[in-house]
Specification:
The protein has one helix spanning about 10-85, and strands at about 1-5, 5. It is mainly alpha-helical. The protein has one domain (about 5-80). It comes from Coemansia javaensis.
């Protein structure tokens, strides 16, 4: 086989043929990926946006319930501390 004025052995020609097959497959895969990106990426992004909005709502509800729970614990703890400790003031004691 003669290419560019050089003689190629059978092994070199077979190697170049395999490289050409690989190149064509990579080019075909790139085309398929571009097609998938054009057609399916927008739908996927929209569905992910819906999931993101739902997750934000669940997070907000969860966070508010945790805040309410901690507020109730603080209120219960304050009520308990008032009953457990004697009243204190900065005034000097009566003599």
């Amino acid at each position: 086989m003669v290419q560019g004025g050089q003689h190629l052995t059978d092994r070199e020609a077979a190697l170049l043929t395999e490289y050409e097959l690989i190149r064509s497959e990579v080019k075909r895969m790139a085309g398929l990926i571009a097609e998938i990106n054009r057609e399916e990426l927008d739908a996927l992004a929209q569905s992910m946006r819906a999931v993101e909005q739902k997750l934000a709502l669940v997070y907000t509800v969860f966070r508010s319930s945790i805040y309410a729970h901690l507020s109730q614990q603080d209120a219960a703890g304050d009520a308990m501390s008032v009953c457990a400790e004697p009243f204190q003031t900065n005034c000097p004691p009566f003599d």
